[in-house]
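Need residues for this backbone.
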């Protein structure tokens, strides 16, 4: 595909104005554009399936049209700001509704006398995860009247990145366990002191004693049972809950922000994702010992996690794969503290400093892998 100059100089508002020699990135929101007068529909017949298509510009003036070589079809584009304005509006609408209903859910639960303890907290947390999905569907289908499945990557077409998504989470958990043992005051605990320290925050003394008795009677070590259960739950029931978030974050948001490039869009989504967790974290979720500082820690965690999720989304071409990653991460994160003693919720565990170091290493590994294996990198 290449760009050619038009013979005349059309009205400024109806054309994409570019300087000579510019290399532009055409984002996905320029595909299948509808409802704009005098602008032909752009479909995937004109662009490749890549999220960003490079088009070199060879113009002697600022006016241009895009020439599709196979069909000799000239397409006029309105000024790029009109498209950006449209998609910023969609993003802000999604964020406003999502944060409003999520925060309202927690506020109402607490105002009505709810206590942040199982089973109430578990029910609220699960409902909390489905709100981004519901908002994304309402915006896409009822407000913008646009297709849902393909733009959001709802695809069950299996590829090996689904397997990567499934196994990456327990790998991160075991690596975090190893890194935690390097910290001062942290040591291996075959009696699983770390697990029971976490359970004390959510179980009564009687329930805790009952759990300890049941674990002691198990025929095989709890860590292997937890791994198997985590892998099964992560790809099934937990993936369904993960889909509740992922259709919002890696579905709608990633689609609308892809034009910013991989790192910028991942950073913005990660920041939003972390702040979105704030009402839960303040109640002691994930950071029961440091609920206020935990909001900052959770945001750092999601900032580090976001590029990994975005990368899996791009490589698998499916939000289902990231839902499996999300569900399996939630199901296996406890493996990182199951057999250690010492440390606290800020230092050990997947959501602590040890986990942050592992996530940094995973990000670097994906960066190296992408540039070493791809002629055209998705990471820009």
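Answer:
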């Amino acid at each position: 595909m290449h760009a050619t100059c038009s013979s005349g100089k059309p009205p400024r508002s109806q054309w994409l104005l570019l300087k000579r020699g510019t290399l532009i990135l055409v984002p996905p929101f320029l595909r299948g554009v509808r409802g704009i007068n005098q602008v032909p529909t752009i479909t995937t017949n004109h662009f490749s399936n890549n999220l960003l298509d490079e088009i070199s510009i060879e113009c002697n003036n600022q006016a241009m049209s895009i020439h599709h070589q196979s069909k000799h079809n000239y397409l006029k584009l309105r000024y790029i700001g009109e498209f950006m304005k449209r998609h910023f509006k969609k993003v802000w609408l999604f964020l406003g509704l999502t944060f409003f209903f999520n925060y309202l859910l927690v506020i109402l639960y607490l105002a009505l006398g709810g206590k942040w303890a199982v089973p109430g907290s578990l029910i609220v947390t699960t409902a909390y995860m489905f709100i981004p999905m519901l908002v994304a569907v309402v915006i896409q289908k009822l407000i913008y009247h646009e297709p849902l499945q393909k733009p959001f990557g709802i695809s069950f077409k299996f590829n090996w990145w689904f397997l990567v998504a499934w196994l990456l989470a327990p790998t991160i958990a075991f690596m975090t366990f190893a890194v935690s043992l390097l910290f001062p005051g942290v040591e291996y605990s075959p009696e699983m002191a770390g697990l029971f320290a976490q359970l004390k925050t959510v179980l009564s003394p009687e329930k805790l004693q009952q759990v300890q008795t049941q674990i002691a009677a198990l025929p095989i070590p709890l860590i292997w049972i937890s791994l198997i259960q985590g892998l099964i739950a992560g790809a099934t029931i937990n993936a369904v809950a993960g889909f509740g978030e992922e259709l919002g974050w890696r579905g709608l948001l990633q689609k609308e922000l892809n034009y910013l490039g991989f790192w910028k869009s991942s950073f913005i989504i990660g920041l939003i994702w972390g702040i979105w967790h704030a009402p839960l974290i303040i109640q002691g979720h994930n950071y029961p010992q440091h609920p206020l500082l935990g909001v900052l820690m959770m945001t750092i965690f999601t900032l580090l996690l976001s590029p990994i999720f975005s990368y899996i989304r791009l490589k698998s071409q499916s939000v289902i794969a990231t839902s499996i990653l999300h569900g399996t991460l939630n199901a296996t994160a406890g493996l990182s503290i199951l057999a250690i003693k010492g440390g606290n919720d800020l230092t050990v565990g997947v959501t602590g400093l040890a986990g942050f170091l592992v996530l940094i290493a995973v990000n670097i590994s994906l960066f190296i892998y992408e540039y070493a294996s791809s002629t055209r990198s998705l990471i820009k």
